Amino acid sequence: MTPERIRERLAETEDRIDLDQFVAAIEYVRDDGRS
């Protein structure tokens, strides 16, 4: 998923998600993929 598409999907949520948790989850998945 491209960063633009992620931003579009986040805009659609209208603040129904916790952005801090979302970013932490993305970073976890990214870091996990490196190992």
Question: Which helices and strands appear, and what pairs or packs with what?
Answer:
Layout lengths: L2 H11 L5 H16 L1
Report how far apart the termini are: 21 Å
Uncertain spans: none
Using the alpha-carbon principal axes, give the shape.
flat
What is the number of domains? 1
Largest sheet: none
Enumerate how many helices there are, as a single number.
Answer: 2
Radius of gyration: 11 Å
Percentage of residues in helical conformation: over 70%
What percent of residues are in strands? under 5%
Number of strands: 0
Give a brief outline of the structure:
This protein has one domain (3-33). 77% of the residues lie in helices and 0% in strands. The protein is built from two helices and no strands.
What does this protein structure show overall?
The protein is mainly alpha-helical and about 35 residues long. The chain has one domain (about 5-35). The chain is built from two helices and no strands. The two termini are about 20 Å apart.
